[in-house]
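Quick one, C-alpha cells below. Sequence please?
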C-alpha cells in the first residue's frame, strides 16, 4: 500500500480523550514503522507530531520533526515546529537556534518571530520578547494571536497602560470575546480607572448577563466611583444569581454600614455568617454596629466570638474594653486593655486607652507608666504629654508635670491645652502674674478655654478682662 494512501486515515475520529489520542498515536507509529518512505506522507507525520504535542509528549514529537527536517531541510515551518517543541521542553537556547534557522530561511516567517517572543519571555527576557512579537505584528498587523501574546507579555510585566492599548485592539478584532474584555477590565482595575472598568463590565454583561462575577466586578467599580447605592444593587444581582457568593455579600454588608443602613448591614452580615460562621469581619462589623446603636452588651457578645476564634486578636480586646468602659465595668475594661498591650505592645493608642482608664480609676502610677510607653511609641502627640502631666500632678510631682506640659508645647506651640494646664498650676500656687501669661495664651488659641476657666475658677473671674486679648 502506498504511504500516500494510508488506509483508513480518514476514518479516525477526532476525540480529545487521552485514550483515543494514544490509540491514534499507536496506529500512526505502527504505520511509519511498517511502511518504507512513510515520512513522505508529511500530512500524517505532522498530525502525529500535533498529537504528541497536544498530549504533552514533546520528547516523542522531537524525533519526528527532526526526521522531517532531514528530508526537508529548507522548510522554515519544520524549524519553527522544532523550536516550539524545544521551548516546551524548557530547552530555550536550542529553541532559539531553531527559530533563528527558520528566519534565515524566511525572514518574514511571522510564526518564528512570535514563538521566539514566547521563548524569550520564558527566559524572563521581556525586552527581547517584545522586540520579537513587534516584528511578528509588523508582518501580520491584525493577527489576533500575536496581539494576544504581546498583551500577555505586557501584563506579566505589569505594564498595564500599554497592555490596555493592545487589548483594545483585540476587542475591536473580536468584539464579543468575553475573555479579552475581562482582561481589559482587570487592567483598568489595576490602573485605578474604575469608570472604564465599569464600561467594559457593562459590555461583558451584554454578552453574559448571568455571570455573577461580572456583577461583582461592576459593584467594585461603582464602589470605587462612590456610587454606593448602585454598587449595592450590583452586589444584589450577583447574589440573585449565586446566593452563597460570599465576596459580594461581604462588600454589600460593608457598604450598607458605610451609608448608615445599620440594621440592613447587620442582616447582611448575619447572612454571611451562615456561610462563613467564623468570619471575623462579619463579627467585628456587627459588634461595631451595636456600639453605634449604644447596644454595648450585645456588642460584647460578638467580640467574645471573635476572641474565641482568634485569641490573639488584640483589636477585639481593645474594642471590647471600650464597651466595658462605656458600661462602667472598669475592672473588665482594664483587663482587656492590658491583654491588648501584651499581645501588641507597639500600638500607642492601646497604651493611651489603658493610661486614661488607669487615671480615671485612681491608678496614677500605672497611668504614668502607660503614658510614658505611649510617648516612646508616638513622640509627636502632645496629648500624651498632657496625660502624663496630669498623672505627675496627682502624684505630687509638680515640676515634672510642668515639664511634661512644656514638652507638649514644643511639639505643638499652637495647642491651647498645655498653656492652660501650666497656668492652672501657677494659679493654684498663687503666682498670679505667671498664671496670667499662660492663661492669656490659652484663651488666644482657644476661646472655649475661657468658659472652662470660669467653671473651674469662679473666684478668679475678675482677672479675665486683663488676660483676654481683644
Amino acid at each position: 500500500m502506498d504511504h500516500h494512501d494510508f488506509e483508513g486515515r480518514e476514518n479516525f475520529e477526532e476525540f480529545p480523550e487521552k485514550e483515543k489520542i494514544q490509540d491514534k498515536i499507536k496506529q500512526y507509529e505502527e504505520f511509519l514503522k511498517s511502511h518504507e518512505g512513510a515520512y513522505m506522507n508529511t500530512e500524517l507525520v505532522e498530525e502525529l507530531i500535533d498529537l504528541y504535542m497536544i498530549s504533552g509528549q514533546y520528547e516523542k514529537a522531537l524525533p519526528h520533526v527532526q526526521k522531517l527536517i532531514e528530508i526537508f531541510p529548507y522548510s522554515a515551518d519544520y524549524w519553527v515546529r522544532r523550536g516550539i517543541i524545544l521551548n516546551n521542553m524548557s530547552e530555550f537556547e536550542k529553541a532559539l537556534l531553531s527559530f533563528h534557522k527558520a528566519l534565515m530561511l524566511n525572514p518574514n516567517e511571522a510564526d518564528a518571530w512570535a514563538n521566539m517572543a514566547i521563548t524569550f519571555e520564558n527566559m524572563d527576557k521581556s525586552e527581547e520578547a517584545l522586540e520579537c512579537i513587534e516584528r511578528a505584528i509588523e508582518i501580520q498587523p491584525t493577527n489576533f494571536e500575536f496581539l494576544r501574546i504581546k498583551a500577555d507579555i505586557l501584563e506579566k510585566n505589569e505594564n498595564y497602560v500599554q497592555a490596555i492599548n493592545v487589548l483594545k485592539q483585540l476587542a475591536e478584532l473580536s468584539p464579543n470575546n468575553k475573555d479579552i474584555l475581562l482582561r481589559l477590565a482587570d487592567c483598568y482595575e489595576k490602573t485605578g480607572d474604575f469608570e472604564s472598568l465599569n464600561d467594559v463590565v457593562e459590555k461583558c454583561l451584554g454578552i453574559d448577563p448571568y455571570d455573577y462575577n461580572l456583577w461583582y466586578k461592576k459593584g467594585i467599580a461603582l464602589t470605587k466611583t462612590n456610587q454606593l447605592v448602585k454598587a449595592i444593587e450590583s452586589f444584589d444581582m450577583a447574589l440573585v444569581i449565586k446566593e452563597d457568593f460570599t465576596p459580594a455579600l461581604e462588600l454589600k454588608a460593608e457598604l450598607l454600614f458605610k451609608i448608615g443602613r445599620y440594621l440592613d448591614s447587620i442582616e447582611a452580615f448575619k447572612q454571611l455568617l451562615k456561610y462563613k460562621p467564623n468570619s471575623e469581619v462579619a463579627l467585628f462589623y456587627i459588634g461595631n454596629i451595636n456600639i453605634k446603636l449604644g447596644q454595648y452588651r450585645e456588642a460584647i457578645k460578638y467580640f467574645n466570638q471573635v476572641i474565641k476564634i482568634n485569641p490573639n486578636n488584640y483589636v477585639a480586646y481593645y474594642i471590647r474594653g471600650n464597651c466595658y468602659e462605656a458600661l462602667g465595668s472598669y475592672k473588665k475594661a482594664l483587663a482587656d486593655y492590658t491583654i491588648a498591650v501584651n499581645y501588641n505592645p507597639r500600638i500607642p493608642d492601646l497604651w493611651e486607652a489603658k493610661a486614661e482608664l488607669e487615671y480615671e480609676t485612681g491608678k496614677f502610677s500605672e497611668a504614668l507608666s502607660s503614658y510614658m510607653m505611649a510617648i516612646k511609641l508616638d513622640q509627636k502627640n502632645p496629648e500624651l504629654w498632657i496625660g502624663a502631666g496630669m498623672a505627675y500632678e496627682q502624684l505630687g510631682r509638680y515640676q515634672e508635670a510642668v515639664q511634661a506640659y512644656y514638652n507638649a508645647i514644643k511639639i505643638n506651640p499652637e495647642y491651647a491645652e498645655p498653656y492652660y494646664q501650666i497656668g492652672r498650676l501657677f494659679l493654684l500656687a498663687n503666682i498670679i502674674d505667671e498664671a496670667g501669661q499662660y492663661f492669656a495664651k490659652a484663651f488666644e488659641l482657644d476661646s472655649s478655654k475661657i468658659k472652662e476657666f470660669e467653671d473651674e475658677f469662679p473666684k478668679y473671674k475678675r482677672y479675665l478682662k486683663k488676660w483676654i486679648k481683644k
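Residues 1-15 have pLDDT under 50 and may be disordered. The two ends are 117 Å apart (CA to CA).
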